[in-house]
Write a structure and sequence with these properties.
The chain is 50% helix and 9% strand. By secondary structure, it is mostly helical. A three-stranded mixed sheet has the order 8-1-9.
């Protein structure tokens, strides 16, 4: 038997060379081994005064501290963050904005470097439906778990500082994590290391101090109120005055993303819940319309399917219910997940004539349930099978409104969202009642007049928001300007569709549907299409005309 050395020497020269090369470490492996073997982090003397010497104690956490007077706007921090964290070409976790003001009668351009503020109550964490955010209990760093994210992008709306960024190539969101892995070994974050003026440092802040100060002001002039998420970043300056300074991009209006999948999902689910309501009520008193119920079910299915198209990783849509304790998005998902099967079961029972109460009683008998109230009467079962989808559906609509109210954006706050979504659902109720009347040969006057009235109310309500353009101090002044200028064609289309539908409804109410003969069904279909298309355009304006909360930006071209 030959020894290994003799076997190696007997190999062809090329194979021997390749085997020898495999024994050597690559340049990357050698550098990694060298770096890990050092007991002291290299170049630490350059930044050891810019990071805490000890971990935060109880009641403290890490925070960025920025000396604005030292920031020159060179963007070395942006470049270092990008390269040392291996970000994609268009991805940035740190940005540089600008403030405009005066100092001792001289004009000043003040650069502002900003990243994640690692808030005490981070909106990204609270709003996330998949539990993809974690706040470290020791350091206070808010981290994003890439493998848990399914790309709903809600955190990009919820964060008032526009910190999380959607990475389309991976279908997830990512954000600054304060280079926690470097801090853990006594190394400064990339931005701290790169700043030539030492304008950025990491410090320990007391949570109680942050709590006391958040209600006084915002981080910077033009920044959102600190009371929303309680950010911990400290900006220091001897020159910046909140009263006299303003962001360089102040007054710059840009239409936002339309989110077509969300537009379709919201309108379909709200119409579905509304249309199901007359059918569910009819199920209780024995006058249910199967066609209305099936149409409502189909719209709900299409709406939920459209919602999954919005996700960056739709195969993980099931994770959307994990955050039910704190996320309105999870609660919405649960509500509609219950509305869909309960409505479907009711439709199947109506279609196939199944007596659910009898089936339940048979199951109770087979299971040998001898409780006094184990059996249910037919009327009780009908009430339950109608009440469950009714409650779940309207809770889902309410949760949909709360999702956008939570972001604190002016156009989405309070009644501006709740009334829009609610009136769309009530329009669905009128449409369902009209369809029931047509199928059962009943009077159509009341539902037709009701639909026309609701449309008038909704259009007037939307027009009142456009009047904010006359009041520069209005919180939705910018949104009104967007709808009347940048998005004027969409606004014209929305009112054109709505007014045409109102005119046709009034014509039907005056003449009576029977007067149209064979044209009755096409006219009703046209009216329904106009209303539905109008709601789609209205919801598109809802997304595109909103002014997001953000940190001060740079000078726009």
């Amino acid at each position: 038997m030959q020894s290994p050395s003799r076997q190696l020497s007997s190999q062809p020269p090329m194979i021997s060379d390749l085997l020898e090369q495999q024994k050597e470490l690559t340049a990357v492996q050698r550098f990694s081994a060298f770096h890990e073997s050092e007991s002291v982090v290299r170049h630490s003397h350059h930044y050891q005064d810019l990071i805490p010497l000890s971990a935060p104690t109880a009641g403290e956490q890490y925070a960025f501290e920025v000396d604005l007077d030292l920031c020159s706007g060179c963007k070395a921090c942006v470049s270092a963050c990008h390269h040392l964290n291996g970000l994609q070409p268009a991805e940035t976790w740190r940005q540089v904005g600008m403030l405009l003001g005066t100092h001792e009668t001289l004009p000043i351009l003040q650069h502002v470097t900003t990243a994640c503020h690692h808030c005490l109550e981070p909106a990204c964490l609270v709003g996330c439906p998949t539990e993809a955010y974690q706040k470290d209990p020791t350091t206070g760093v808010v981290r994003h778990l890439d493998d848990q994210c399914f790309g709903c992008q809600y955190c990009t709306m919820a964060c008032p500082y526009e910190v999380p960024q959607y990475l389309e190539v991976r279908g997830i969101v990512r954000k600054c994590d304060m280079c926690h892995q470097r801090l853990a070994v006594g190394e400064a974050p990339a931005c701290v290391q790169a700043c030539p003026n030492q304008a950025i440092r990491i410090t320990n802040v007391t949570k109680d101090d942050v709590e006391r100060n958040v209600h006084k002001t915002s981080l910077l002039p033009g920044a959102p109120s600190s009371a929303i998420t309680k950010p911990t970043t400290i900006f220091r300056s001897q020159r910046v005055n909140h009263a006299d300074w303003r962001p360089a991009d102040n007054g710059v209006l840009r239409p936002q993303h339309a989110h077509p999948a969300l537009v379709l999902m919201l309108v379909l689910t709200q119409f579905s819940v509304g249309m199901a309501t007359p059918a569910l009520w009819g199920n209780v008193n024995g006058t249910s319309c199967l066609l209305t119920l099936c149409l409502s079910l189909a719209m709900a299915i299409l709406g939920i399917a459209a919602a999954t198209c919005h996700l960056g990783r739709p195969l993980y849509a099931f994770r959307g219910m994990l955050g039910w304790r704190h996320s309105w998005l999870s609660r919405e998902a649960i509500a509609f997940a219950m509305f869909l099967p309960t409505t479907g079961l009711l439709a199947c029972r109506s279609l196939f004539g199944i007596d659910i109460s009898a089936s339940y009683n048979e199951i109770a008998t087979v299971a040998n349930i001898s409780l006094r109230h184990a059996t249910l009467s037919s009327s009780t079962m009908q009430l339950l099978e109608s009440a469950v989808p009714f409650v779940c559906g309207w809770i889902g609509v309410y949760c949909s409104a709360r999702i956008y109210q939570f972001t604190q954006r002016a156009l989405w706050r309070g009644h501006r969202t709740l009334l829009r979504f609610g009136l769309t659902s009530v329009l669905g109720v009128a449409a369902g009642a009209l369809l029931d009347s047509v199928v059962q040969n009943g009077s159509t006057t009341v539902p037709v007049v009701g639909m026309a009235t609701l449309l008038v109310v909704k259009l007037c309500y939307e027009a009142m928001q456009l009047l904010a353009v006359l009041t520069p101090d209005s919180p939705i002044y910018g949104s009104a300007q967007l709808m009347l200028h940048h998005l004027r064609y969409l606004t014209i289309l929305r009112y054109g569709l709505g007014l045409t539908a109102i005119a046709l409804l009034l014509l039907v109410a005056i003449r009576g549907l029977s007067e149209f003969g064979l044209w009755a069904v096409p006219i009703l279909a046209l009216i329904s299409g106009l209303i539905f298309a109008g709601e789609l355009v209205e919801r598109t304006l809802y997304f595109k005309a909103v002014e997001p909360l953000r940190m001060p930006g740079g000078i726009s071209a």
